[in-house]
Amino acid sequence: MKKLAAVISASLLMAASTSAMAEVYVGAKAGKSWLDDACTSATVNCDKDDSTVGAFIGYEMWDFLSIEAGYDYLGKFDGQGLNNDKVEAYTLAPKVNLPITEDISLYGKFGGAFVNYGDEDDYSYLGAAGIEFDSHEHVAVRVEYQAITDINNDQVRAMGNSATIGVVYKFGETAEPAPVVVEEEPVVVEEPAEPEVITKTFETQRLGTGSFELNSAELKADSLEQLDELVDFLNTYPQANVQVIGYTDASGTEAYNQVMSEKRADAVANALVAKGIDASRITTAGEGEKNPIASNATHEGRVENRRVEIIVPEFDYQVQQ
Length: 321
What we know:
The chain folds into two domains: 2-170, Beta Barrel (Porin), CATH 2.40.160.20; 187-319, CATH 3.30.1330.60. Helix content is 18%, strand content 49%. It contains five helices and 13 strands.
């Protein structure tokens, strides 16, 4: 047990130091398992391959770090000290994430395991590496290789391996797009016997990440309807122009984020053109991960930062008296 003490103590200290904004998740996995170094030249029967299933629960403290506990049934094996006996493990390890894009990340785990190896029990080390795909707001899919080393039954020191596919469910609230608020605030400058000059504007309209298909620049049908009030305003005041600016969160590479922000801005501009607004009145830009409006350290903050802002600069028009 001494060889697990440092790993478990460090994991518990990290969990105790996190904020209440952490995210809990659960998951299950299945795949192929095999043992290394489980047989010797004296072993009569040796069967080192089987199927594995497992379950786990995790606590995501930050985007890049979680603490994860699990149970693995590695299967039944014949080997030195094993006679068609099952091997199972209870695991605890920190999980370190490395985002590649907005919805794909690599991860690694290093921790400890308590292993039931036939009639023997042992404390061992655990290491794992994998790739995770966010396929839905709350659901992710994993592909993982895991190794549990130094399983000692006083006859051999074996290693338990597994290659699995898993599904993860993440608890938490789904962020809803912010409502579109339109406000007109005219400023009247009165001059006797002269036409009345009024300065008009249109409050900045923001389309959140929920307005687009997952990891895509394609606008959802209900998001297109949010543009109707803006289109009516532009048709009423043909001297008004519009600026469309796309933003992302800080996940993924800077180059990927820049391209995605430009594509989403262009998608909104194309939707306005399709609704009858002349393209010469529209300018677009992509700012990537620049100018965040919330913290990229939380899931909710990243949702707010993935947005498209629509701005109508102030303009003057004359009203004949």
